[in-house]
Amino acid sequence: MGTLAPLQRRKLAGRFALLDRDGDGTLTEADVLALAERICTRLHPPADLQRQIHAACAELWAHLAEADLDGDARVCFEEYALAASTHPDGTVVRLAEAVFRTLDTDGSGSLEAGEYAVLLEVMGGSPHETAAVLARLDFDGTGTIERQEFLAACLDYFVSTDPTAPGNWVFGTPAAPGPPGAAGSHNRKL
Ligand SMILES: [Ca+2]
Ligand SMILES: [Ca+2]
Ligand SMILES: [Ca+2]
Question: One Pfam annotation, family name (predicted)?
């Protein structure tokens, strides 16, 4: 898909930067495993959820590896952009489910502002953006993010190529435009 519109490319660059944990401009298995490790280390989910998060990230890498056309075990941005239909829904949903259950520490079935702020902090966004993010994702106006709202937002973020999708804000304000590794994506690193 070499004909990606600039806005779609920008959206893709933000997603790429989120996954490129060491910020070297390519995605490797280590980047994706580091994402699982960071979530588990910072949020301390119970063992079953940790397994689910690691398994979903392993699936994510298996899928990404298919985009490694030159076989160097790294997925560069161009390879990633070519495979822009990208992440399978099932993998995203499994990861999002496990993260949702991890974040919902009071077991209320929804993410209140304080619980959501933790996600932003862990993913490299700013907890100060919580209210703005909630305003975009809280479709039913309850003031909290229910499971379906969170899953929809994660699917928007990882699967949709629509640069205006509300889910683009799931981890905070989308990164400024620019190629991976350039200024604007540095706030997403480990
Ligand atoms: Ca490659
Ligand atoms: Ca809750
Ligand atoms: Ca809601």
Answer: EF-hand_7
Distance 19 CA to ligand 1 centre (A): 15
**Tokens read off for 14:** 């933000």
Q: What confidence tens digit (pLDDT) does each residue in 66-92 have?
A: 989 999 999 999 999 877 666 788 999
The 10 Å Cβ neighbour count of residue 141 is 7
Ligand 2 centroid, distance to 47 Cα (angstroms): 19
Ligand nearest to the CA of 150: 3
- Give distance in angstroms: CA of 148 to centre of ligand 3: 9
pTM of the model as a whole: 0.84
Find out whether 87 and 16 touch, Cβ atoms under 8 Å: no
Residue 56: domain span: 6-164
Name the DSSP class of 178.
Answer: S
Q: Which ligand is nearest to the CA of 113?
A: 2
